[in-house]
Specification:
21% helix; 8 helices; SAC domain-containing protein; SAC_dom; 26% strand; alpha+beta; 402 residues; eight-stranded antiparallel beta sheet
């Protein structure tokens, strides 16, 4: 898709759809692609591959648009659904200041023959060298006055958040998306009676793994007569790990050197090719590092919950196996940074019966409802003194399950 700049808007154009981003208010308005003709003197800034959402780093800051700048193809599931990994993002401030250098890929239509080192700018900005000199002089004069502490703190806070945000997307390589395939739901969920494939992706996806939902909420809430205008721009992004390996089963290896070709029927069978997929989806609820996020919260969300699905694809057949993991479903915590600090129950030494039922309803019953038949394994090391309360609690929970 192409990114255009006008005096009042940044405009994303993707064939029949366009997204108008107001540079003064930061609001997003989806329109038809043909509406680009009504924009005054649009200049193409380059290509991007999607929108993650928008963010405001500080209450006094302007909105900024998160764009997918670079991506790589992980593979094609069922030979038709392309799955991409996000490699780099671009942060585009929605303000009337001169646009920042995004280093986007050039558009072959509008940037034919332009070298990467050349800067794309609007005609009225050709006097930028003179303006730059003036701004340098003006800035030097302003720097004579000491900056207020509030401004310094604000700039420091923005820089810290911005660095962490860019680092999270550009260095961790843990964010994935697909334009057509629902990465948030396992094959089992997608073939259930409750799953409505006719709905847009963001309306039928598993909300637990919809990582950019908050960032794209404005478009989710957008109301207009043509519903599909906003739906086109809302693509759920998952965090986790996805990999595809192409394998081959060669039956000729089963034939001994002294065997004749007619001894085994399998010797004439062509090698079978199949794909193995590994998809790990991390929940956006109660996510955090191991030492800081433990147990449950008031909504029943389990800390560091991950769903891992293994898919074997022998087209057109797909076979799936799902495992989930999460923190112990109790209100508990661990203090300190030493190895294996003793767990501590945060809400008393013994849970009353009604609390046990609430716990089961919010976590274990939800697991069974989502994944149907489930085998539960408890990976807990019990210490004779520190964990006697945990031992009593889990014995009580086990009795409720049985």
């Amino acid at each position: 898709m192409e990114l255009y700049q006008t005096e009042s808007h940044y405009i994303l154009l993707d064939n029949e759809f366009s997204l108008w981003c107001n540079r003064q208010t930061g609001s997003l308005e989806p329109k038809r692609g043909s509406d680009l003709c009504s924009a005054w003197n649009p200049v193409c800034m380059g290509l991007c591959y999607g929108i993650i959402g928008k963010i405001k780093l500080h209450p006094d800051s302007s909105w900024a648009l998160l764009l997918i700048k670079q991506r790589s193809l992980v593979g094609e599931l069922a030979e038709k659904h392309k799955i991409f990994q996000i490699n780099r993002i671009a942060l585009l401030p929605l303000n009337t200041a001169d646009p920042v250098e995004l280093d986007l890929e050039f558009c072959k239509t509008h940037h034919f023959g332009i070298k990467k080192s050349e800067q794309i700018t609007r005609p009225e900005l050709l006097q930028k060298p003179l303006l730059k000199t003036w701004h340098t002089i003006k800035s030097a004069a302003e720097n004579v006055k000491p900056k207020k502490k509030e401004i310094k703190d604000k700039e420091k806070f923005e820089r810290r958040i911005l660095d962490e945000l860019i680092k999270m997307f550009n260095e961790e390589e843990s964010f994935y998306y697909s334009d057509k395939y629902d990465l948030t739901c396992s094959l089992q969920q997608q073939h259930s009676t409750q799953y409505n494939e006719s709905l847009p992706l963001f309306k039928r996806c598993d909300q637990r793994f919809f990582w950019n939902k908050y960032l794209i909420q404005e478009l989710i809430d957008f109301k207009c007569e043509e519903i599909d205008l906003a739906d086109h721009w809302i693509v759920p992004i998952v965090q986790g790990y996805i990999q595809m390996a192409r394998c081959q089963m060669d039956f000729s290896e089963n034939v001994s050197p002294g065997d004749s070709p007619g001894d085994y029927a399998s010797s004439s069978v062509e090698p079978l090719k199949y794909d193995i997929w590994l998809l790990s989806r991390r929940s956006r609820h109660r996510a955090g590092t191991r030492s800081k996020k433990r147990g449950l919260d008031e909504t029943g969300a389990c800390a560091n919950f991950v769903e891992t699905e293994q898919i074997i694809e022998f087209f057109p057949h797909l076979v799936s196996f799902v495992q989930v993991r999460g923190s112990i479903p109790v209100y508990w915590s661990q203090t300190g940074i030493k190895y294996r600090p003793p767990p501590r129950l945060d809400r008393g030494s013994y849970f009353p019966l009604i609390t046990n039922y609430t716990l089961i309803d919010s976590t274990l019953v939800q697991l069974i409802y989502t994944y149907m038949r489930t085998n539960i394994t408890l990976l807990v090391v019990f210490y004779p003194i520190q964990n006697i309360e945990l031992d009593i609690f889990f014995s009580n929970v086990s009795s409720q399950l049985s």
